[in-house]
């Protein structure tokens, strides 16, 4: 497997575009399109929030009950959530307009929205945006980048990545883009993500692969404990790589799933690192666990602890907050056997052994915690299972951003 430049246009047959459609104030890119030259089998995972935005409901129906998808329309600025029948009708209208311009079936168009909850979509802008997007569709890396920029809200950087690998001597590509900075919390899926691949694979196995990968990537990310109404990850596969179609769980399936996990891990980490107001990516590894479930529970509890996140912002090795978060997680373990470490590019330091603080250097600990990427490792010494979660520090700017979000 090899990392490469690009995102949603890296795989064969995929085009994209991103423009300013006037949904946001100012000349800011706020509308994106992804298009495949050939119909794709599609898979998706969606928010577990009971309050689901209209695009989520539309895409769930299309992904789960329709055989193919060929285009995705995404706007930023308005979430189309809590908008009733009118909001759902706007999803259908968006699909109708895009299908007409592209010359594809209406039920092959997926839609996504992100932004302010409760506002209705400005359909005039959206319709005009679709008309503008289609002529500038391109398979260039730059076009994928423009699309990645157009789906951003409070994100400070675009998020895209791609990899290539081989299946029986055939080069296959997986690429993706996502947006996410606030309202980020497991479980599923904590953002908008769009992944494209030219692999030839059955719809059933595509969905299973995505569902498994999401558990170890997006479901292990938390910024603020808020699960959005719009969380969606869509995966499109057009089969244009020319590999023998994957219809069973064999070596080809495993190679594809590994590449899919790599792409989505990179995107998930990018979301955590770009958490609203964040100054550091905070990674938590729980090792030596009795089971994967125990490791997941413990790592999530640590990475979501507001007190621990605040300590990371202050570069303070306040390990008691980590043990405390483990203690209320609901997972059973012996706190008198836990070892804790902090590590970063500046080094690695063991601070707790068997539940008791060691005589470590506070100065060295602060140096390690002052890096842009910081990892806490908790060894519970109960088995061989492990899990990794990602989050960020909690800063003053998080409150400022969310206090002024609508204004």
Quick summary:
The protein has 407 residues and is an alpha+beta fold. The protein is 33% helix and 28% strand.
Annotation, overall tally of beta strands: 15
Report the portion of residues in β strands. 25-35%
Q: Percentage of helical residues? A: 25-40%
Average of the residue pLDDT scores: 93
Helix count, per DSSP?
A: 11
- What class would the helix/strand composition place it in? alpha+beta
Q: Radius of gyration over alpha carbons? A: 22 Å
> From N to C, what is the helix and strand string?
EEEHEHEHHEEEHEHEHHHEEEHEEH
Could you give the distance between the termini?
A: 45 Å
Query: Major sheet: size, sense and barrel closure?
Result: 9 strands, mixed
Q: Which regions contain 5 or more consecutive residues with pLDDT less than 50?
A: none
Shape: globular
Q: Can you offer a commentary on this structure?
A:
By secondary structure, the chain is α+β, with helices and mostly antiparallel strands. 33% of the residues lie in helices and 28% in strands. It has helices at residues 54-65, 84-102, 123-133, 141-150, 203-216, 251-273, 292-303, 306-313, 319-327, 362-369, 396-403, and strands at 2-4, 14-19, 31-46, 69-78, 109-116, 159-167, 170-179, 192-197, 232-237, 281-289, 339-344, 347-353, 356-357, 373-379, 385-392. The strands form 2 sheets. Strands 1, 2, 3, 4, 5, 6, 7, 8 and 9 form a 9-stranded mixed beta sheet that branches. A 6-stranded mixed beta sheet has the order 13-12-11-14-10-15. Helix 1 (54-65) packs across helix 2. The longest helix has 23 residues, at 251-273. The radius of gyration is 22 Å and the shape is globular. It starts with a strand and ends with a helix. The relative contact order is 0.14. The model has no long low-confidence stretch (mean pLDDT 93). The active site is at 190 (nucleophile). Pfam families: ArgJ (PF01960). One of its GO terms (molecular function) is L-glutamate N-acetyltransferase activity, acting on acetyl-L-ornithine as donor. It catalyses: N(2)-acetyl-L-ornithine + L-glutamate = N-acetyl-L-glutamate + L-ornithine; L-glutamate + acetyl-CoA = N-acetyl-L-glutamate + CoA + H(+). Keywords: Acyltransferase, Amino-acid biosynthesis, Arginine biosynthesis, Autocatalytic cleavage, Cytoplasm, Multifunctional enzyme, Transferase.
